[in-house]
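User: Teach me something about this protein's shape.
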Amino acid sequence: GRVRLGARWGLTALALSWFAMVTRLEPSVLRAVAMAMVAATVLWWGRYASVLRVLAVAVIVVLMVDPLLVWSMGFRLSVAACASIVVLARPLAERIPGPPLLAQALAVALAAHAGTAPVLVSFAGTVPVLGPVWNLLAVPVAGWLMVWGLVTAPLAGIVGEPFATMVGVPSRAMLSWLEAVAAFGASPGWPRWSAVGAFASSALVVLAALPAEWLRHLSSMARRATLAALVVLALADGAGVLAGRTAVVGSANVESGDQAIVLILKPGVSERVTLEAVSRCRCRRLDVVFVLGRGRSAANAVWSVREVVEVGTVFAQRPDEIRDAHQLPEGVVRVGDLRLDVRPTGAIAVASAG
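Assistant: First, the predicted structure itself:
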């Protein structure tokens, strides 16, 4: 016969605990596990709860157990994505033409973007314009990989070779695909949105999902003007028209001229703030990097920048600490149309050469 509800709840709790341990208790996993446990409890008690209520209760419970998760970017993004998918995915899928399966997948990707873009841009400074496309390519495979791994990994450990190698072939293939999509999508050549484009694109998705009766109080002219303004903002920002000529994030400064772009790394700079400054300026090449700090943090920052954009000349106070670096000069240095005054104290003043 069928397992009683109480026993099913216990088995569900065991399975979810195993899943959480295998995935190393990541914040997004904790949110998913908590939602599943709340849903299982509601079913056990014979009650009904909407998905939004399940999400709200799960978030409250998780934060009561570990309040510091509120500062976790992974947890914030997970909650934002889940909430936006629940609210926006179904109406979006109904409005997207084409095969239902493709429309549903695209609706989920767009809904997730609408929820996460405002959160992500506040942390990283920019978000990829083609993020929903990369999600369409990666998320289904990631789901298959998770299920395949959870099922086959214990069996591979018990049975051993050659079974373990055989069941590992699909896992390696799916991992290779995910790595390729991640590397391709992370290329600095792809357009990115700043806060303007992120909020404009999110607003477009929300407007597309809103019921028609919610917009009836607006005139046809107002609706068209709002839509046109959001589209123009999103396209202009994605094309780099609204990109700033300077980006200052903590100890990292990006200065852009008409002919050159330079990066100035001050003492105490970190990899995170350096990459955020470069990302905000949306540059594909840095003509010159000036390193005013020293030590491992400065060397790591330069290494990280070289991984994501093309870097020309690097000047450093301690060139022996950074690969292919030159001694930081003193006096006036001209880089394209930029004039940089390198002072004996190590400070740099930037002005237009014109």
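Now, about its shape. The mean pLDDT is 81. The CA atoms of residues 122 and 195 lie 7 Å apart. If you'd like, I can walk through any region in more detail.
User: That's plenty for now, thanks!
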